[in-house]
Amino acid sequence: AQTVTQSQPEMSVQEAETVTLSCTYDTSENNYYLFWYKQPPSRQMILVIRQEAYKQQNATENRFSVNFQKAAKSFSLKISDSQLGDTAMYFCAFMKHWSNFGNEKLTFGTGTRLTIIP
Amino acid sequence: DTEVTQTPKHLVMGMTNKKSLKCEQHMGHRAMYWYKQKAKKPPELMFVYSYEKLSINESVPSRFSPECPNSSLLNLHLHALQPEDSALYLCASSQDWLGPYNEQFFGPGTRLTVL
Fold this sequence. Notes:
The structure holds two protein chains of two kinds. Chain A is mainly β. Chain A has strands at residues 3-5, 10-14, 19-21, 24-26, 32-39, 46-52, 60-61, 64-69, 74-79, 88-96, 106-108, 112-117. Chain A is 0% helix and 52% strand. In chain A, strands 2, 5, 6, 10, 11 and 12 form a six-stranded mixed sheet that branches. Chain B has strands spanning 4-7, 10-13, 18-25, 31-37, 44-50, 53-57, 64-70, 73-79, 87-94, 105-106, 110-114. At the A-B interface, strand 6 of A face strand 5 and strand 6 of B.
């Protein structure tokens, strides 16, 4: 079974600063995917960024980037130029590669509550 | 339309009531999911439907009964619930692709309170 650990329950940062959220995971799988999801207060969960384990290059999406260290089983999220709208709960998630559609399961970490201070 | 809708937004029910949660998507997705999320906790997978067939049941108690009448609609029938079942119930859907681009789109959830 896979486990995902987010060791920072809460973080806060001033607007426009950079913040890094940490995530570690444990798996015996070699082929898998990692995700960061954002859940704003009382709003829908949305995907922020994804990373395929077989890709060495770190994924980036505008102000969001990851630092993926496969050997260390670490997958941190960096938010640059943070904005008030980034205030949310952030979940790191793991998905094993499946050969059959319909078996995809996301395993979520416990989340980090990020507050951007004006 | 890239939206997953869920009704009702809020539901309060007694332990002897029978109620249903509804989820709908019109993105042509062929997988649909039910998650349970307690306050300040991550979502926990309950059920997965793939091509309208139940593909995963995470050992959920029988007082929760899922139903997928067609590819756009997912229901969760509730009966004889316990107060500890109070939570946010999230629905999600995804395309019939394999791999990381099989992004799950989440609905806003139904906040359920069992008295």
